[in-house]
Design brief:
Blueprint: E1 2-8, E2 25-26, E3 29-30, H1 31-40, E4 45-52, E5 70-74, H2 79-88, E6 98-101, H3 111-121, E7 128-133, E8 139-142, E9 145-149, E10 156-165, H4 166-175, H5 184-190, E11 196-199, H6 212-222
Parallel strand pairs: 1-4, 1-6, 4-5, 7-11
Antiparallel strand pairs: 2-3, 6-10, 7-10, 8-9
This protein binds cytidine-5'-monophosphate (C5P).
């Protein structure tokens, strides 16, 4: 069976917009509503848990909040703590069930990419993630100066959703250094796994800075959303 967890307990410290980035408006709806839409529309989804900050007062006001597949729980100090709380809030899930984890601040996920991820990652024992091959030449920085150039043919940029078996992901997060894990795949890698890279699209961006909003809006418009 297929479940989903959407961590949304971050406070958007880098954005400085006065509002966590998942609640900024994008084309008349909150960023998080766009992020949830393709997951809730996915035909095989059994349940989706949104993980919220303890003092969140915004989520309950959104139109999507009453969706029958949706429930909420309270997150933790780090993204990995929040995802772990979300996994523990999945009602009926079994260790062998699959769980999608998707950022609340990634509003432009294409339904086709989600479907390809689910189909391809479920064939891999260690699951998988959407990612895109690096386009730019990448530099190692030392005190503001380039010290070396990475071999970009081996570098991909990780996105979400990421898909793993519940038992494997929970164990990897429980045993990992949760203050420093920035995505679920890195926890699986540290536990010895090799998640499959499923090629997505560069416009599946995480809204991090205010000037990401016009780009996200253009991408949604191009998708007719
Ligand atoms: O900070 P970052 O952009 O990596 O956050 C990615 C996602 O993790 C966001 O959707 C954010 O709300 C969530 N998060 C969380 N709990 C935290 C920190 C971040 O759910 N303690």
């Amino acid at each position: 069976m297929l479940y989903a967890v959407v961590p949304a307990a971050g406070r958007g410290a880098r954005m400085d917009a006065g509002l966590p980035k998942q609640y900024l408006q994008l084309g008349g709806r909150a960023v998080i509503e766009h992020a949830l839409e393709p997951l809730l529309d996915y035909p095989e989804l059994e349940q989706l848990v949104v993980v919220l900050a303890p003092d969140d007062q915004d989520f309950a006001t959104l139109g999507v909040a009453g969706h029958p597949l949706l429930s909420t729980c309270v997150g933790g100090a780090s993204r990995a703590d929040s995802v772990l709380a979300g996994l523990n809030a999945l009602d009926a899930a079994d260790v062998d069930d699959w769980v999608l984890v998707h950022d609340a601040a990634r509003p432009c996920l294409r339904p086709d990419d989600l479907d390809r991820l689910v189909r391809q990652a479920r064939r891999s024992p260690d699951g998988g993630l959407l990612a895109v091959p690096a386009r730019d030449t990448l530099k190692q920085s030392q005190e503001g100066h380039a010290s070396s150039t990475l071999d970009r043919s081996t570098i991909w940029q990780a996105q979400t959703p990421q898909l793993f078996r519940l038992g494997l992901l929970r164990q990897a997060l429980e045993q990992g250094d949760r203050m420093h894990i920035t995505d679920e795949a890195s926890a699986i890698e540290l536990a010895g796994g090799r998640p499959r890279l499923v090629q997505g699209h560069g416009d599946n961006l995480k809204v991090t800075w205010l000037d990401d909003l016009p780009m996200a809006e253009a991408s949604l418009r191009a998708q007719g959303r």
